[in-house]
Amino acid sequence: MLKKVLFFYLPLILVPFYTLSQSNPDNVLVPAPYDAGFRQYWVSDPSREMKIKGTDIQQERAMLVNIWYPVEPSAAPSPFTRRTYFDFVKEGKYKAISEAYRNYNLEVLESEIFPYFPDSLATPSVKKEYLEAFLDLPLPVRKDALPIQGKFPVVIYHQGAGASFEDNNFLCEYLAGHGYIVIGSSFFSGKGSLGPDGRLTSLEDIGFLLDYLKKYSFADTSKVAVMGHSLGGQGALISFALNSRGINTVISMETTQEYHEIDHPLWKDFTDPVLESDIDSRGGSLLSFASHSSLFALNDLMKKTDRYYVSLPSYFDHNDYLSQASYARTLYLYFLYKKGSEEDEQDIADLKLRQQFIDEKYAEVLSVTLDFLNHKLKGNRAGLIKGLQSSSRENINYNQLIRHEQKPDGPVPTSRELYQMLQSKGVSRVIKTLRRFSEEGTKYRNDLGEEVDKPIFGSTFSYVMVLSLLKKGKIEEARKLSGFYSEIDIHVASRFISLSSFYKLFGKNEISKQNLRYLLLLEPENQEAKELLETLSKKE
């Protein structure tokens, strides 16, 4: 029964994805001229070996190849469901790896589609019921359909850390419907896990995939873009920086490094390959998505790259770049409706409002992505790029959303601009600017009516600004800036402590200790920092 109800109900909730072009004329998702076809294969690279920890799997490097492509539109219903994406278990030499990878993906999917369910409600039986119904939802995809005649540009999609390969299936289907060949893979980690690699092993996989695509007459492998989310965005940027296989177009969706300086050790295995490349002389084109608090410091080294930075509000979370996140909220909405309790009415209203605004922002991400690809891979300059303003500074374009508030004497500076001001103008100029824009408060109301920090007054950004001075040995300047933050009720030391605890939780003890040492330069008598550092040192 649940499956039948969901078949009817979920499309109503998911209207922003499929009918935004009709329902919201100010933010158009251009209707796709084609349907999306899908093919899936297991292939092996005999030049490399793989071994999966905790299993008996040791063989030639296997890859699950997923290809979305344009097909003739049809009014006939498609038998394709989300479950179809996971029908890849094979007999023979791929049996063990295909079974293990299917189980991995279903476990990831279960963890990703129930984050809104309270633990008390997410019982095993509820999870099983909703997961099975979710897997049986129909999708507008035609498996193994004949491709449209012609040659189409290629987009390589790389999923993020710990993700399932179809985490952004709507994006892949949408681009296929607009005349792109989208290819993804398992991208198994080079360290022996079933999760994606996002590093040099992925780089080798990308090269293999491009060679594999040459067998298809409809794929134009002379026009290739690589894109990814989170870890996948990092892998995409490494591929771009190293000019892997002549890839000159890259799209990164919140790598998570954007919010910190380039030398942060947590991202060293990502930033080092980029820094060791000829990144300062690299041409090509970059589209980078992140939130308003981004520094974009690594991207700024690409002086000769045609760069586009798109920032989004803080309520658009890390996983909201993925269609999977919207499905998760939709499932919980249906659960609350089905539960039918009056006490849930406000939760339903709040979640529907959040869903509406997040889906609109997701649609903007898709719209800008499509415009960017149309320009860079198809030479179509029309409308490039919706919502973007051109800027004479280093050939960068900015999304209008980056300006969340206007002032008579100019807009509130972006986090990136204030960070650059610190490097070039010094702390006194920064404090003067912060003081001027804090006069009317350090917070504002976002689209959801929530009172949130203006990006330049966010706790993490304030921490990064102070840390930048400490790393350069500018202790007094760091204390001066921290003192000003304290005047406006931003306590930087607390952020040092919370991040150190976070690093400790994930086993990054050396990073945690270094962070605490910097805090003790700022506040030599900080007792909490001393105790935490002592605890970490005793574990050595």
Descriptive overview:
Residues 1-21 form the signal peptide. The protein is α/β, with parallel strands linked by helices. It has two domains: 2-390, Rossmann fold, CATH 3.40.50.1820; 403-538. It contains 17 helices and 13 strands. The protein has helices at residues 2-13, 15-23, 95-113, 124-135, 169-177, 200-213, 231-241, 268-275, 323-339, 345-378, 415-425, 427-438, 459-471, 475-487, 492-505, 509-522, 527-538, and strands at residues 35-51, 58-71, 141-143, 152-158, 181-185, 219-229, 249-253, 285-291, 306-312, 388-390, 396-399, 443-445, 451-453. A hairpin with a 5-residue loop joins strand 12 (443-445) and strand 13. The longest helix is centred in the last third of the chain and has 34 residues, at 345-378.
Summarize the structure.
This protein is α/β, with parallel strands linked by helices.
* Backbone CA Rg: 24 Å
Largest sheet: 11 strands, mixed
Strand order within the widest sheet?
Answer: 3-1-2-5-4-6-7-8-9-11-10
Full CATH superfamily name of the largest domain: Alpha/Beta hydrolase fold, catalytic domain
Question: What is the count of DSSP helices, taking H or I runs of 4+ residues?
Answer: 17
Organism: Leptobacterium flavescens
Protein name: Alpha/beta hydrolase
Keywords: Hydrolase, Lipid degradation, Lipid metabolism, Signal
Signal peptide: 1-21
